[in-house]
Amino acid sequence: MYICYAKVANSDSQKWYARALQVLQYLNPTWHFQISSSGEDHYVDAGPPDCEIPPNDGPHRGQCPLHLQTTKQSDGTSKLYLWMNSISSPYLLKPPPPPPSKTVSSAAAPTAASAAPGTAAGCDDFCQNLKKAFEARVAAFAGIRTTKGNDGTTDVTVRLAGAKQCSVKEASGPKPNGFGTQFVCYWRETSGSAAESRFRDLVSRLQILIPSNWSTRQETELDDSTGAEITAWYAIEPGSKHDVRVYVSVESVGLHVTTWN
Fold it and tell me: If 155 and its partner were Cys, which of 2, 111, 146, 172 is the partner (CB 3.0–4.6 Å)?
């Protein structure tokens, strides 16, 4: 998956969108472009004529390999996205199996009120658990915490696939109160390229998950303890009550979802 993202002035986003769409249609004249626009927001999915618009998981075989998007923000800027998936990679997933038959008895089937939230089709287990962890920030992760250890670290009932460790612990930082609580997951990959892929996958999933009025940025910084160079991506709620940080350094990847006191 190839991902480009930017936040620019709204007038510039409209020019970028028009030019990008024109160039893509020129480069791939046989592709089918499915365009949905609402005011100054535009969404484009493109690929072979019979391709399907992909949900949040995948990519699967048969899905449109290209997505183009621009969405206007409340501060007068716009978010731009360009995602391209390979259409020939052996790593493309097979389409998911069809949903189970609806002939299950009503006693065994969950009602709309009792069904777990966020279990709509198109969201895999990783997506579901990431969504649960992100939404748990509202209650300082009380719903996913278990026994609290002596060091203030708490085990969790939600874990993200491949992570070496996921936990909830106390946080401190340059905030008005200076303290908070955060959900933390760490990955140790086998190579720098694998770590970079993990980092990009987390960022792309979170860009879909976080509310549109959150500010985002990516920057290079130095680790406080080791001095190693880190690439970090931030998403911050207006008012800075909650934030998300994803970072990659050599073969290590980390995710912090924080709620501040």
Answer: 146
How far apart CA 118 and CA 111 sit, in angstroms, is: 14
Cis upstream peptide for 95 (omega within 30°): no
* Amino acid in the structure at residue 169: K
Q: What is the 3-state secondary structure (H, E, C) of 52-102?
A: ECCCCCCCECCECCEEEEEEECCCCEEEEEEEECCCCCCCCECCCCCCCCC
Residue 108: how many other CB atoms lie within 10 Å: 6
Query: Which pair of structure tokens corresponds to residue 17?
Result: 């969108």
- Grouping H, G, I as helix, E, B as strand and the rest as coil, residue 105 is coil
pLDDT tens digits, one per residue of 185-240: 999 998 888 888 899 889 888 988 888 888 888 888 877 666 678 899 999 999 88
191: three-class secondary structure by DSSP:
coil
Q: Listing from the earlier edge strand, what are the strands of the sheet with 41-47?
A: 2-9, 77-84, 66-72, 41-47, 32-38
Helix (H) or strand (E) holding 195: helix 192-209
Closest C-alpha among 184, 217, 214 to residue 75: 214
Two structure tokens written together for 106 = 């009503």
